[in-house]
UniProtKB/TrEMBL annotation:
Gene3D superfamilies: Glycerate kinase, domain 1, Glycerate kinase, domain 2. Belongs to the glycerate kinase type-1 family. It holds the Pfam family Gly_kinase. InterPro entries: Glyc_kinase_flavodox-like_fold, Glycerate_kinase, Glycerate_kinase_RE-like, Glycerate_kinase_sf. It comes from the Bacteria. PANTHER family: GLYCERATE KINASE. Keywords: Kinase, Transferase. This is Glycerate kinase. One of its GO terms (molecular function) is kinase activity. Signal peptide: none annotated.
Length: 388
């Protein structure tokens, strides 16, 4: 901010700063990013007033961001993507729950990192949703991303009371591959409490369920799917949607083509079948975390994530933070591990300047291994450039 000194000259002084950054995936959580940035700023301006609001866009780290903002962490034992039991968490405040599908069905939940593109199931995500219902909530923010699964949300729906049967009347095998054997879907046993909650599908992707931009084609390879697996999964999900059409009518096909249906291996589709409304994940999370009132209290916003690139501009956390801050007339800078956007693109996104770790340490491997200390030095540079 600018004030005048005794001679009438403009002098920059440190105002209140808001650190609203996402995680540096594989290096630092969003909470750790905020802590390192705060420490670096205060090495230059010791009495600086810094407010931390770790953010997430609905993917992994969403529950941690909610807990950092004052939600209560609730843990429950659920099925992991391959059926093994894991401890997963959701966040609770009042009658609102934040549920993160990656807590139960994420890639990090696969034992020893073994990928299982055809058999991984979202059953545990359904158990997490059921735990939130047991807590008596009226609103569930369902953050999806980072999944190990491509089952169209069939496992999640099964955990909530749906049945997916083969020609002999037996349950189909778990995972997207098993849906090729689906003959009948019965949704009559779905938990009736679902009809009484506002279910918000929070995602940073708007892909449909199937086709060239669908879940198997775009995201299947990230989960270990070979080209043949992608073809099989896409055919299985097309078949799954057709069978669901027999159970719930034309809206099954409408949901399959809707934005967000392909999120997190198609769990977005399952959520839409449950009546969820799709919203960009970062918009939802900024509302839930109380970003607007925090923004009013500050003069500078520091956002960021591990890599600032073209993907950042399509619904990722820094783009959402910058857009909201720019609308409020606040100055925004960003921190990142790697920067792949030119200054003019950053400017159009509402980011005045970006500070990559690679500016101080060109060795990417060292940036990943020593992200915390390097980020702290980056924050010192921000303080010198913008606060003193």
């Amino acid at each position: 901010m600018q004030v005048a000194d005794a001679a009438g000259n403009d002098v920059r002084t440190a105002g209140r700063v808001l650190v609203a950054a996402d995680k540096f995936k594989g290096s630092l959580t969003a909470v750790q990013v905020a802590a390192r940035v705060t420490a670096g700023l205060r090495r230059v301006v010791p009495d600086l007033d810094v407010e931390s609001l770790p953010v997430a866009d609905g993917g992994d780290g969403t529950v941690d961001a909610a807990v950092a903002a004052g939600f209560e962490r609730r843990e429950v034992r659920v099925a992991g993507p391959l059926g093994h039991e894991v401890t997963a968490a959701f966040a609770l405040r009042g009658d609102t729950a934040v549920v993160e599908m990656a807590e139960a069905s994420g890639l990090q939940r696969l034992p020893d990192g073994v990928l299982a593109p055809l058999t991984a199931s979202t059953y545990g995500s359904g158990e997490l949703l059921r735990a939130a219902l047991d807590a008596g909530v009226r609103t569930i923010v369902f953050g999806v991303g980072g999944s190990a699964t491509t089952d169209g949300g069939a496992g999640m729906l099964s955990a909530l009371g749906a049945r997916f049967l083969d020609g002999a009347g037996d349950p189909v095998p778990p995972g997207g591959g098993g849906l090729a054997e689906l003959a009948r879907a019965d949704l009559s046993g779905l938990d009736p409490r679902l009809a009484m909650v506002d279910l918000v599908l929070a995602s940073d992707v708007d892909n449909p369920l199937t086709g060239p931009k669908g879940a198997p084609a775009v995201y299947g390879p990230q989960k270990g799917a070979s080209p043949d697996d992608v073809t099989a999964l896409d055919a299985a999900l097309v078949h799954y949607a057709k069978v669901l059409e027999q159970a719930i009518g034309p809206r099954a096909a409408e949901h399959a083509a809707s934005p967000g249906a392909g999120a997190a291996g198609g769990i977005g589709y399952g959520a839409l079948v449950l009546g969820a409304r799709f919203r960009p994940g970062i918009e939802v999370m900024l509302d839930v975390l109380g970003f607007a009132p925090a923004l009013e209290r500050v003069s500078l916003v520091i956002t960021g994530e591990g890599s600032l690139d073209t993907q950042t501009l399509h619904g990722k956390a820094p783009a959402g933070v910058a857009a909201a801050a720019r609308a409020a007339g606040k100055e925004v800078v960003a921190v990142c591990g790697r920067l792949a956007l030119p200054p003019e693109t950053l400017g159009r996104a509402g980011i005045r300047r970006a500070y990559p770790l690679t500016e101080l340490e060109p060795d990417v491997a060292k940036c990943i291994a020593d992200a915390g200390p390097i980020l702290q030095r980056v924050a010192e540079n921000i303080a010198r450039d913008f606060l003193v």
